[in-house]
## 1
Amino acid sequence: MNSILSKDVIKEWGLTSMPATEQNTMVERIGRILYQAILVRSLDILSEKEQVEFDELLDQDSTTPDEVLAFLQKKIPTFEQMVLDEKKSLKDDILIPAK
């Protein structure tokens, strides 16, 4: 998973008490969900020309998620904040405090 998405996920999400294999599984799941959320949100931000470039990038079989995120990071000035917002939103949705 891209380091953009995996930074401190184990600590942020309170996964430190899990065995390493479970931590890796959870980080991968969280990463996939975040990746999808970032892709969807990016479509609203990119210009039409950038969306065409983005589609062309996605259509290439050899394109990796890291390359997709690097493209978005280059095209969206507020990319880092968007990632933080998506992380917080997902965390808030999933980690509902017990009452």
## 2
Amino acid sequence: MAGKNDLMAVGISSLLEDLFEAERAVRRAQAELAKQKASELLPLLRKTAELALAQGEDADAGMKLARCAELLGEIDGAEPVDLLIDVLAADAPEARLAAGEALEERAFARFKEVALGIERALTRLPKESPALSELPYMLAEVPEPGVLPLLNRFLGHASADAVASAIEALAQLGDPGARQHLRARIDDKRTVDLGDEDAESTKVTIGELAREAISLLDEVAAAEGETRSRGKGR
């Protein structure tokens, strides 16, 4: 029995080493690709991303999109930002995660570049694109003054899911100045489903979400006012 266990341990150890070597090979390849001229690499990444997006839920497509997103994050310019936003609409969670992280990192370093890409996305993407409901959550993580007006633009979008995401992002942002924009949505009767894949359906109207966000921001404003009053009293 001991001999059999030893053989199993050797087999597992060998597989583990194969995994490490594969990861080292991936990193070497990515490092070499990152050194290439953007003018030569970008067209290949664009073609690969477009083909992979067309494959839907295919696991291999998700892997390709995730790797493309990591490389696109290293290239400056408008087109890489647009492609990263396109990958946010992928069916594969690993691809969406890689694209979101690359966009967020770019937004911290060069916010205007990402902001312009998001403005383009609001007009160029079809209203049913999942990317439009992913972008507000990414924006809420970026400490830039331009985030608030950009999120406010989502509130007027034709996609109910994009509007709902913007409302939740504005509530997360915690800026009472957003209340005036949220009030425009309190009579919006469109419904969205807030349940995830593993939860039961939870349908609410845009108006209900807006009123809840306004209530939360009212509390923030009241707390800030109380803090200021205490400061003056000292």
## 3
Amino acid sequence: MEQIRIKDEALPILKSGIVFKKKLLSVKAGNYLKRLKAFEKKHKMKSEAFLKKFNRGKLGDDEEWFDWLFVYEAYNKIIEQKKIIDGMSL
């Protein structure tokens, strides 16, 4: 793992930036989760089931499927980033 040298006076700036990023990720995750739930309700299937069907080519290439895929992947990426920040000791 790469280490970064940081001057003591820079730590508060970095910490506040990380805290801000965590809040931003929480808001984005909430927004994407709402959109995922709307897709799931509309199509009466969970996102995981959608992904399996989509990847098998069983849903076609309608633009809405690609929108759902984008939202699903974006949500999961945000959750991964949030977990990394949650694992930091600030």
## 4
Amino acid sequence: MTKPHASKRHLPTSPFKAAVAPAPKHFAVGDQVTHDVYGLGRVIGIEDGIAALVDFGSGQQLRILSPYAKMTKL
């Protein structure tokens, strides 16, 4: 069994640029979104920085947790 890969600390004297984390995704009520698993939906509620409540149609409402890796704003 292998250990999980830990990120290394960037040294200030390094000639290489530090890795940049992607900007967090932000959604607003009414945004149309697509999810890799659930498909097309509309944001109907927001828990700031925690989760988004999304209506995927036919009564299927799901709470999608941040960082919304599988969800994209259309």
